[in-house]
Amino acid sequence: MTNEHVITRDMVKLNVIIDLNYNLGKKWIKIKLDEKERFIKCDKENDTTIVEIIPKDKIKDKYFLIPNINNINYKDKEIYIVQYHQGIDYSYGSIKICKNNKLIYNASTKSGSSGSPIFIKDTTTVIGIHRGGFRDKKMNTGILISSIIKSLYNEKKEIKNILINNFKKIYENGYCYIGQYLNGKRHGKGTLYNKNGKVIYEGEFVNDKEEGKGKYIYENGNYYLGHWMNGKKNGEGTIYDKIGKIIYTGNFVNDKFEGTGTYFYEDGKKYLGQWLNGLRHGNGIIFSKNDDIIIYEGRFVNGEYKEKENKVNGFIDEIYTNNDSFENDDYGFIDEKFIKNDNFENDDEGFIDERFIH
To answer: Which of 119, 157, 120, 142 is nearest to 46 (CA)?
Structure first.
């Protein structure tokens, strides 16, 4: 990213080859300004030009801008500017005016520093790019990153396939998402917070839904750690209580226990076996507290014992003959230790339902 008066639209039309300096001046590469092979946007109004780095450029180092497109007033914030003028140089100052898309600051810069990034002091947070100075004042001007990103979003065709890091979005219900954003959706790694600033979910997203590996934290402190697909728990995962003790570990399908899994009772006993649609279904074993006695071994159908009599010890523990139903409630969970409204399906606004454990 630089100024439009540095890389102009006319240069792009001519497919000019430019020298790109990165890694604090230690590395140089040549880049051809060819819109057929890379995204290029020249914005004369904002005096910015964005050039996409592609695999062909062979830049292995990962450098990210950290834009914030929300309306933040940076007035009086201390800043530093990384400039390149016959070598890396730094200038320091503070923001005097932050209005609309412009920054005015008292950091002095050297000739040829247009397009240099403006950072918040002692951070790697880029808030703008340097533009130029006033002839009659010891002041310089820059362009806010927020206005640059917003200009891209106003032209949806041009922002396609640009991954934004550290994107922040606040929803109407007070929830907040911070993470990667692609084509107007949560995509990549990110964190979702509730209106009180507490983490609800942290992990991976695909097309605005939880997908990949992620951690969901319930209101009572219990948490799920495992795989997600299409906004629901799918694949291998584990539910822990708030002190880290395992409650269930095994396979999930669409938020329900399905496949092979182990459930740990509060009294120390456990069930190891097959599940279907949230119910014990198929072959399974119930062990005693110390795993030294098999209380029941056999088949289950829709959560109930298939056999009336235990083949191993000749009896079925009363704990498991009365009200031993693992059937999920309407929201796909079992047992009062868990959430009653565990609907992980994204709503129309594209974020997790605000209903949590009761």
So the answer is: 142
pLDDT digit string, tens, across residues 320-343: 433 343 333 332 333 333 333 333
Q: CA 259, CA 232: separation in Å to the nearest integer?
A: 16
DSSP 245: -
From the DSSP assignment, how many helices (H) and strands (E) are in the chain? 4, 23
Cα angle 59, 64, 70 (rounded to 5 degrees) comes to 155
Give the integer Cα–Cα distance in Å for 202 and 136.
Answer: 50
Does pTM surpass 0.70?
no
Q: What is residue 55's DSSP assignment?
A: G
What pLDDT sits at residue 155?
52
Q: Interior CA angle at 83 toward 82 and 87, to 5°?
A: 115
The three-point CA angle 261-263-266 to 5° equals 170
* Cα 181 to Cα 165: distance, rounded to the nearest angstrom: 7
Instruction: Render 319-333 in DSSP notation, one character per residue.
Output: HHHSS------TTS-
Question: 125 CB contacts (<8 Å, ≥6 apart)?
Answer: 66, 68, 119
Taking only Cα atoms into account, the Rg of the chain, rounded to an integer number of angstroms, comes to: 28
Domain boundaries, the chain: 9-57
- In angstroms, the Cα distances linking 184 to 109, 167, 291, 350 are 36, 10, 51, 11
Provide the 3-class DSSP secondary structure of residue 12. helix
Do the Cβ atoms of 42 and 25 come closer than 8 Å? no
